[in-house]
Amino acid sequence: MSGQTLTDRIAAAQYQLTGSDMARAVCKATTHEVMAPKKKHLEYLVSATNTTNVNIPQMADTLFERSTNASWVVVFKALVTTHHMCVYGNERFIQYLASRTSLFNLSNFIDKTGSHGYDMSTFIRRYGRYLNEKAFAYRQMAFDFTRVKKGADGVMRTMTTEKLLKGMPVLQTQIDTLLEFDVHPKELNNGIINAAFMLLFKDLVKLFASYNDGIINLLGQ
């Protein structure tokens, strides 16, 4: 399927009528087009998270709403957009995710519209678990392992033993959940999977750096 569907256009128009440019941008980023969310919509949303009057809960809730769609394309793009906001948006976005009592409920998600839908559903379930774990880790630690300062005077190197013993298992679980995504090179031709993979890869590099700092700290105690 290529191009925006009538459903996409109607949804965008509904948000436009309610006066929510931000919700409309979320809708535009999560269309039925089998391609990664468009850069201009992601940039608009990232910029919005840095404005003082932005309604972060509304942005996140609209993304959660899009993740309940029956189409794997819309759901996958909602997850990619959410992850993009966690990585590049204001930290208030992931703080809000961490404060929610419920996050992505995709453990049983299956798109039955075709064999491709079944295949993509597996990645969606794994990706949803990772984003939930990322938010849970923030709730546990009150910071994002991928965002904290690294190196000799970084957060994990200067953390107390007590907090380190609490934090390392949380960090290990986040890494393990990320690695479960387990995408193969041939599947990276899919633009949506590729966008998710790039965000996950960047997270993994930073998570390993935090883990390395934590181990160095533990060994130096």
UniProtKB/TrEMBL annotation:
CDD domains, sorted: ANTH_N_AP180
Cellular component GO terms held in the UniProt record: clathrin-coated pit; clathrin-coated vesicle; extrinsic component of presynaptic endocytic zone membrane; synaptic vesicle
GO molecular function: 1-phosphatidylinositol binding; clathrin heavy chain binding; phosphatidylinositol-4,5-bisphosphate binding; SNARE binding
Superkingdom in the source lineage: Eukaryota
GO annotation terms (biological process): clathrin coat assembly; clathrin-dependent endocytosis; synaptic vesicle budding from presynaptic endocytic zone membrane
Main location: membrane
Ranges where the ENTH domain occurs: 14-145
Membership in a protein family: Belongs to the PICALM/SNAP91 family.
Name of protein: Synaptosome associated protein 91b
